[in-house]
Amino acid sequence: MTIEIDLAERRRSREETRVDPANSRSWLLLSALRDDAFDAAQLSRADQVILDCEDAVDDSRKDEARAKVLDWFAQGGRAWVRINERGSQAWADDVRALRDTDGLLGVMLAKTESPDQVVDTAQRLGGSVPVIPLVESALGIEDAVSIARAPGAFRLAFGSGDYRRDTGTANESLAMAYPRSRLVTASRIGGLPGPIDGPTVGTSHALLREQSADGVALGLTGKLCLDLETPAVINESFSPSSADVAWALDFLADFEASGSVIRDGSDKPRLARARKISERAALFHVNPS
């Protein structure tokens, strides 16, 4: 009983400090079969946790994985769930089981290629559950604007591994710039928060920082990850640096001291950037250097 009370208190404390999904940086993707790690994931540094009922689960074990998720939710767990692609029997089973389930924060829809798939998923879940379309193919990338505008779409995510498999694209920053930029542009047009980048394959923190920096430069604002060791690195990479915060605060102070009057053509874009950095610094508790 003491252990259960302690876990409940730790969960409550973690939820009180969790970054909201619209601004979340690190999205930890964990196999729905690994119920022994669900609590550790929820209490980790990850801004959000996604229990994966799709690619991480063999077809023969879908029912088992879904049952583990529902059982954990019944015990007070809270997370997102990656559900199977629209049109599959597993998708139908997923949305039927998850509808009106306490603990479900939202779903990530695998292999999204059209807005109809998003709308259908949102409706089958009751109309109020946020849906993150995971765009993983050439067709999905090209229809990203329509997907972003679909009712129920909450934030786009990039399935970079399947995209490379679909297109033969190399896992290099230049080769992956186009699909990432498409998702950034589509999110802006659709009025969504910045998209979530695909995971970095491997355990090298140097590579993770490099690929995170590529995403930040292109306008992505979050990243999927596959283990408990990487959320802290992602959170740092997708937060403004102390030096950027110092510049933003200095610029805003100088602008206010000048009477908040636009002085030349560079002021408006710099003002917008300074305000954005200041907002994110406050959200992520980043102090100026």
Automatic annotation (TrEMBL):
Cofactor(s) essential for the protein: Mg(2+)
Key words, A-Z: Lyase, Magnesium, Metal-binding
A GO BP entry: oxaloacetate metabolic process
Domain of life: Bacteria
Binding site for Mg(2+): 136, 162
GO molecular function, one term: lyase activity
Domain HpcH/HpaI aldolase/citrate lyase positions: 28-226
Pfam family of the protein (one): HpcH_HpaI
Keyword Transcription included in the entry's annotation: no
Residues that, per the record, bind substrate: 82, 136
PANTHER family xrefs: CITRATE LYASE SUBUNIT BETA (PTHR32308:SF10), LYASE BETA SUBUNIT, PUTATIVE (AFU_ORTHOLOGUE AFUA_4G13030)-RELATED (PTHR32308)
Entry protein name: Citrate lyase subunit beta / citryl-CoA lyase
Organism of origin: Krasilnikoviella flava
